[in-house]
Amino acid sequence: MEKRIKIDQIAPQAYKAMLGLEGFLAKAKLKKSHKELIKIRASQINNCAYCIDMHTKDALKNGETANRIFLISAWREAIGIFTEEEQLILEMTEEITQISQHGLSEKTYEKASRFFSDNLLAEIIMAVVIINSWNRIAVSTHLLIGE
Fold this sequence. Notes:
Layout lengths: L6 H4 L1 H16 L4 H14 L3 H13 L4 H6 L12 H14 L8 H10 L2 H23 L7
Helix pairs in contact: 2-8, 3-4, 3-6, 3-8, 6-7, 6-8
């Protein structure tokens, strides 16, 4: 894979804005473990090796188990592994990430709005949006694992 531009160097203001979004997410009340589930699942869907590598390592550092990480892509079939809250977060992540299919469905949104406060719901949506943006930057610019 051929190296491409480095967005942080070519468009530092845009990159700084992305870091600002990441700063918002760092201060969010959403649990770290939930943030990492979102980041890993969206990155899997988007085939972003750079982000999968980064966020699985971060999840392990934050106490996530390897077994649960291995099962994220098959969370629906991993009965008893993910809580109802985590399953809903993963479902939202998939639907928002795959927006061209149908986006966040009414069924999922209604269930989430009963389960999460408005503030937490906004944080989940923003977490999915942010990692999808990072995935698109990493994949488009051929970021390599470890860069």
